[in-house]
Amino acid sequence: MSRTIYLDNIPLETAREKFFLRLNQPVLLKSEQIPTELSLGRVTAEPVFACLSSPHYHASAMDGYAVKAASTFGASETLPVQLKTGEEAVLVDTGDPLPQGYDAVVMIEDVHYIDENTIEIIQPVAPWENIRTVGEDLVATEMILPANHIIRPVDIGAMLAGGVNEVSVRVKPVVAILPTGTELVQPGSPLKPGDIIEYNSRVISGLVTEWGGQPKVWGITPDDYGLLLERIGQAVAEADIVVVNAGSSAGTEDFTARAVAELGELLVHGVAIKPGKPVILGLVKGKPVIGIPGYPVSAVLNCELFLRPLLGKMLGIEPGLRETAKAVLARRVVSPQGVDEFVRVKLGQVGDRIVATPMSRGAGIIMSLVRADGLLQVPKLTEGLEAGAEVEVELFRTKEEIRNTVVAVGSHDISLDILGNLLKERFPRLSLSSAHVGSLGGLMAIKRGECHIAGMHMLDEQTGEYNLPYIERLLKHQQVTVINLMYRQQGFIVARGNPKQIKGIEDLVRNDVRFINRQRGAGTRILLDYYLKQKGIDPELIAGYDREEYTHMAVAVAVASGTVDTGLGILAAAHALDLDFIPLTEERYDLVIPAEFWHTDLINALMEIIRSDKFKVRVAGLGGYDMRDTGKVLMQS
Ligand SMILES: Nc1nc2c(c(=O)[nH]1)N[C@H]1C(S)=C(S)[C@@H](COP(=O)(O)OP(=O)(O)OC[C@H]3O[C@@H](n4cnc5c(N)ncnc54)[C@H](O)[C@@H]3O)O[C@H]1N2
Ligand code: MOO
């Protein structure tokens, strides 16, 4: 099979125009009558008018006595009015029809009983007082809902009250979702290298449901051009929109564009957006066909950019609109000119501003969408945005949620995940969001006012003390509180059974030992360099000293895959991959908290969790941790 043609690179607006202008069918879908009770979330196709008034009779609004208002006029404490029950006053309950000839209700609490047949009142009631007159709520013929309205629970109540038992709603657009690729396997299948768990169709299906459509997920179509043609043809016959996932790019088996061109009209292949560039937009038999790139982030973004507005046009609504907010950018974002780039960001309210921290931009990282709080569009006319720039971000969470988030930036440790989880368990409104940029990165974020807490473990070479000397040096003009989170074991991560018999730092210079290092500025790297210096070992003699990884887990993966024999890291990382661990030393891991946040509700709640037995027991249970000083204040500047 020859490769597909080169991709276009047309601007986003041009792509949208080309696509939406060509959808020449009446884009709004037909309507259908459905029982009002089952109409939640559907879109009204026409205005809904009340058939009945509500109430449809004069109803007592209170428990009491129906009276003629005129008979109560003049009543007072000194001149009470007495009424004969059953004649001048008739007992009624809330909701009862008002008996003929009466025009007001006296509440039961305002009635004195004189004898079996007589009541007395000391206050007059006005005509129609305590009565719900016909049509108080709804008058027959009144409009209950306009067209193009998404039906909510209260709307269902009002329609039923108004005698509307069936409602005309837009037919849900049926979206056929075709996952393609020979390498795809259904979730739960046994995996061999090269197999990819097929989950995009489920994500797209969820989005379609959220946006008011009716998803129909097809089985996996392998990379077989004939079969793809056949399936797209079938899908077009059955659905209102067809989404083909993957096979959008320039690989040898990327057939989607060719299939769309052969079956109908290929309008666009390749848009100047990042991620999601190789998107395909076409028409087959007048029906829109969207070819969506395989990488999950690209897939979701393309759905947002093309599928969401398409469903909106068919339904007459704008589904899934999100709030936006102004935020300050924590780090520079470089982005090529001429491309609309969409960057996922973490958001946190630190002091009175929302800080946006750009996240990993890999299109294959679905976790980045799980963790993201918002989306930033870097416009195509710029080459990026500077740190400190004020930007507008689309919010994935409410402003209230963002206000209730503890922002942690710095070194990562699994105990932070446990902390975040326990915080949410105890205070469901609160969250912990952590960005992992290393100990030094955390201190710098504190300095720039971009986080509430920073986790660090940095050994000072001169004093042999942890963290405090760095804080004194780097945060001279800032008042902070430093608390201990835990002590943890650092050591050598080695293959099961420690085949190379690594026992200490000295073994790293052995000819048969291949090492993997951590990046400069990482606490673990500082620790290694400290020991090498102490023992007078020349780093040049270590095979692999120059090879750097950025996380404990990456070091463990290198050991597990056999490309190296050892690297320095924490016990939890070794355990996670079923590797062995040779302890080297215990290090102190502290949290730095700026003074202005120390007594805020957010940090008080966090401290409550840190100091709880539950937290200490859970972390200690992981192995390799000591919680003797957890929560203790070590320094207050
Ligand atoms: N030479 C070039 N190579 C690539 C280009 C390019 O312009 N020139 N574009 C890159 C970009 S950008 C993207 S995005 C991808 C798009 O690739 P395809 O749409 O052809 O998709 P595949 O190659 O089949 O799959 C890519 C990747 O996506 C994941 N995937 C696919 N389907 C599913 C699914 N149903 N569920 C979960 N995950 C799925 C999987 O990780 C695949 O490996 O092309 C680049 N290459
Ligand atoms: O568009 Mo690809 O979607 O950049 O990764």
TrEMBL record:
Q: In which pathway does it act?
A: Cofactor biosynthesis; molybdopterin biosynthesis
Which cofactors go with this protein? Mg(2+)
Domain (MoaB/Mog) spans 176-313
Q: Which GO terms describe its molecular function?
A: metal ion binding; molybdopterin molybdotransferase activity
Question: Transport as a keyword?
Answer: no
Q: Which GO terms describe its biological process?
A: Mo-molybdopterin cofactor biosynthetic process
Q: Which Gene3D superfamilies match?
A: MoaB/Mog-like domain (3.40.980.10), MoeA, C-terminal, domain IV (2.40.340.10), Molybdopterin biosynthesis moea protein, domain 2 (3.90.105.10), Molybdopterin biosynthesis moea protein, domain 3 (2.170.190.11), Periplasmic binding protein-like II (3.40.190.10)
- Pfam families xrefs: MoCF_biosynth (PF00994), MoeA_C (PF03454), MoeA_N (PF03453), PBP_like (PF12727)
Return the EC number: 2.10.1.1
Q: Which InterPro entries match?
A: MoaB/Mog-like_dom_sf, MoaB/Mog_dom, MoCF_biosynth_CS, MoeA-like, MoeA_C_domain_IV, MoeA_C_domain_IV_sf, MoeA_linker/N, MoeA_linker/N_sf
Cellular component GO terms, alphabetical = cytosol
* Reactions performed catalytically: adenylyl-molybdopterin + molybdate = Mo-molybdopterin + AMP + H(+)
The domain of life for this entry's organism is Bacteria
Q: Where is the signal peptide?
A: none
**Top-rank EC class of the record's enzyme:** transferase
Carries keyword Transferase?
yes
Keywords, A to Z?
A: Magnesium, Metal-binding, Molybdenum, Molybdenum cofactor biosynthesis, Transferase
Please describe what this protein does.
Catalyzes the insertion of molybdate into adenylated molybdopterin with the concomitant release of AMP. May be involved in the biosynthesis of molybdopterin.
The similarity annotation says:
Belongs to the MoeA family.
Name by which UniProt lists this protein:
Molybdopterin molybdenumtransferase
- Name the source organism: Thermincola ferriacetica
